[in-house]
Amino acid sequence: MKNVREFIWPVIGLAAVVISGWLLYRELRGMSLDDVWDSLTAVPAHRYAMAGLSTLVAYAALAWYDRIALLHLGVRHISWFFVSVTSFTTYALSHNIGASVFSGAVVRYRAYTSKGLSASQIAVLVALCSFTFGLGTILLGGVVLTVNPGLLYRLEDMLPSALTNPATARVVGFLLLGFVALYVVGSILHLPPLVIRKAKLEYPRPAIMVRQLIAAPLELLGAAGIIYFVLPAHLEPSFLIVLAVFLASFSAALVSHAPGGLGVFELVFLTAMPDIPKADVLAALIIFRLFYLLIPFAMSLVVVLLFERARLAQAWRTRGAVDTRTVPPPPLSSSDQ
Fold it and tell me: Positive or negative CA dihedral for 151, 156, 159, 165?
């Protein structure tokens, strides 16, 4: 059974890529590559710059995730620079590889054990970072559905009609905000931890909780901003709509376990944006993948190689020093006797 569980999620991810790829092909057939290129070249330089700035905001917030988790653990001796590089590398790899919790845990383990953290501390750090992301998604999803519950109509071909009903959507929005409110109350009142089977979830201190409620939405707002700024300005797409569609697309991509959400993310986003030409939407999604996924992925590979090279060199120097100390002294010569 354990071997089956190890293979089931990659199989599901591959199936999601194949199915969504086929559906995406049906959605985009007949579109000319020239149309997409025209859409890419039509984006003004300053809006590309704003998309780049949004990328920096998103990754800065992700680095804050790690810093918040370290503060929760009482770890303060690790520099901001090391935390930022570790977080950047973690998310750049996991966003592209998929199974972000597990791939992120491997990268963080290699990095933070070099700074003296134990395996149990790193497990808590990974769990808290994942929860922080989920908290941000729940918070923004609740706000979007409460403010504009009619947005789910854009996904009426993918969701049951009961969910796309504005009244139902608003109720879901209130429930999501209610979950966040309970989390806030639990942190302020320092309620006993929640025990789910073998896992024990402790409420963080209020100072940690407040940081989570700022960092998590900030990362999602930055990521959605990449797409918003490269969509055609003359069509005046609402940022709230782009954010709502981004949350739905990104969540679907994560649930699918497809590497990088390939195909799933694009399919949901294109389906939910029928009022903007498909070539323009596809161009914006290409820029998103380039800025948020591919460029960081290439940079993270360089970081990993440099880190592992430094660790290997340090291990070799340590081994050399040990070997030198363990060499026995030479025997006394006849002149010394």
Answer: positive
How many residues can be counted in the chain?
337
Segment 52-70 shows an average pLDDT of: 95
Q: Which of 304, 249, 299 minimizes the C-alpha distance to 273?
A: 249
Q: Give dist(CA 167, CA 175) in Å, integer.
A: 13
Q: Residues 6 or more apart from 174 whose CB is under 8 A from it?
A: 142, 146
CA 210 to each of CA 24, 180, 216, 252: distance values in angstroms, whole numbers, following the listed order? 40, 11, 10, 27
pTM, full prediction: 0.81
- CA 171 to chain centroid: 27
pLDDT tens-digit profile of 204-252?
999 999 999 999 999 999 999 999 999 988 877 889 999 999 998 888 8
Quick one: which of 101, 63, 57 has its CA closest to 80? 63
| For helices 264-272 and 278-288, angle between their N-to-C axes, nearest 10 degrees | 140
Tokens for 247, please give them.
């949350």
Q: Are 36 and 282 in contact (CB under 8 A)?
A: yes
**Rounded Cα gap, residues 279 and 67, in angstroms:** 39
As beta bridge partners, residue 201 has 194
Q: How far apart are CA 207 and CA 190, in angstroms?
A: 12
Partners of 137 in the β-ladder: none
> How far apart, in whole angstroms, are the C-alpha atoms of residue 66 and residue 212?
10
For residue 254, CA distances in Å to 1, 80, 176, 248, 260 come to: 24, 28, 19, 10, 8
CA 316 from chain centre, in angstroms, equals 35
Phi and psi, residue 199, nearest 5°: -90, 140
For residue 334, pLDDT over 50 is answered with: no
CA-to-CA distance for 91 and 211, rounded, in angstroms?
Answer: 19
The Cα–Cα gap between 114 and 155 comes to 46
φ/ψ bin of 75: left (φ > 0), alpha (ψ from -120 to 50), beta (otherwise): beta
